[in-house]
Amino acid sequence: MNGRLRGKRALVTGASAGIGRAIAETFIAEGADVFITARTDETGAHAVIALAEHPGQRAGFTIMDAASTSADALLEKAHAAIGPLDILVNNPAFITRTPFLELSEDEYEQTLEVNLRFPFFMTQCFAKACIARKQGGSIINISSVSAFRAVSRMSAYQASKAALSMLSRSCALELAPYGIRVNTISPGLTATSGNANQWRDAPEIWQNRKKDIPMQRAGIPSDMAGAAILLASDESSWMTGADLVIDGGHSCI
Question: Which of these, 82, 150, 155, 250, has the minimum number of CB atoms within 10 Å of its CB?
Answer without folding.
Answer: 150
